[in-house]
Amino acid sequence: MPAGYWIAHVAVTDEEAYGRYAKLAGPAIALHGGAFLARGGRYVSLEGQARARNVLARFPSVEAAEACYRSPEYQEALSHARGASERDLIIIEGV
Prior knowledge:
95 residues; alpha+beta; Alpha-Beta Plaits; four-stranded antiparallel sheet; DUF1330; DUF1330 domain-containing protein; Dimeric_a/b-barrel
């Protein structure tokens, strides 16, 4: 089964609240078999709208990635990111 990947582009507008999100999101992602491949760090924007924070997480499957997003643990984390960031998040299947 191909891996599933979260690709997130984030502009943080409230560092304190987003910090609470980050503290809870990592364990929720790990609980669902997810692992960060890139989290913040240096990037080069070549096309489209750039956001200062970019995240790539690998999951065992697209289904696992979606289950993580919909889980109570991640939704609790996400409650701190809402209003504290502008985010785009997609799940994509690996090859």
